[in-house]
């Protein structure tokens, strides 16, 4: 089973924990994965960051943010992987110039055009390889409840199934936990936790369309702005528009 709740206070503080555990964290450059990094550190893990460029629209800005985060926390290891197969496969507005990135539509039940077919399975497979090669005990991913409402590879059932794949497909003495700490949380919950942990959100990027400024109207921008607005805190990155999405 995946982990989705933090440990008790006696083990959560990294400053009082002997840091002999390692975790790979998938870092996209966005706020969810940045918060997952700080959550992993708070749980006592040395963070091994994995960032992938797969042909997404804002891949340069995302990599820049991931690298800035790695420098900010002095990560003991940062791996950037270039892959081309997801862009070659296409069928997503993030990787195919012929498909437009949709404006946010919070009432839609449709899978958004930004869904990259089975992306998380691809990314998690690389993360598990990285984890096993470096004797890491866990792989963290920042997926949350508003993701799995639209993206099938963000559902709790998917992560539970992938844990079975990890257990079956690694060496007998390998034990790697797939940790999705925010899988039942909203974006607002994540923002609140990140503000508590001191996550440098100015070093993150969420927009699906633009490198700078963020558009403010795609799904990713809408969820992010709504979260900060619900927290009563101004999002520190620049936007072309800042619509009011607050509850």
Automatic annotation (TrEMBL):
4Fe-4S among keywords = no
Q: Which UniProt keywords apply?
A: ATP-binding, Ligase, Metal-binding, Nucleotide-binding, Zinc
Q: Per its record, how is this protein called by name?
A: 7-cyano-7-deazaguanine synthase
Q: Where is the composition biased (Acidic residues)?
A: 1-11
Gene Ontology molecular functions: ATP binding; ligase activity, forming carbon-nitrogen bonds; zinc ion binding
Locate the residues binding Zn(2+).
207, 215, 218, 221
Q: What reactions does this protein catalyze?
A: 7-carboxy-7-carbaguanine + NH4(+) + 2 ATP = 7-cyano-7-carbaguanine + 2 AMP + 2 diphosphate + 2 H(+)
Could you tell me which PANTHER family the record lists for this protein?
A: 7-CYANO-7-DEAZAGUANINE SYNTHASE
Q: What is the lineage of its organism?
A: Archaea, Methanobacteriati, Methanobacteriota, Stenosarchaea group, Halobacteria
- The record lists ATP as bound by 27-37
Obligatory cofactor(s): Zn(2+)
Report the superkingdom from the record: Archaea
EC main class here is ligase
Query: Residues annotated as region Disordered?
Result: 1-20
Q: Describe its function.
A: Catalyzes the ATP-dependent conversion of 7-carboxy-7-deazaguanine (CDG) to 7-cyano-7-deazaguanine (preQ(0)).
Q: EC number(s) of the enzyme?
A: 6.3.4.20
Which gene is annotated as encoding this protein in its UniProt record?
queC
Q: Does the keyword Transport apply?
A: no
Q: Report the sequence similarity comment from the record.
A: Belongs to the QueC family.
Q: In which pathway does it act?
A: Purine metabolism; 7-cyano-7-deazaguanine biosynthesis
Question: Pfam families attached here?
Answer: QueC (PF06508)
Q: How is the cofactor bound?
A: Binds 1 zinc ion per subunit.
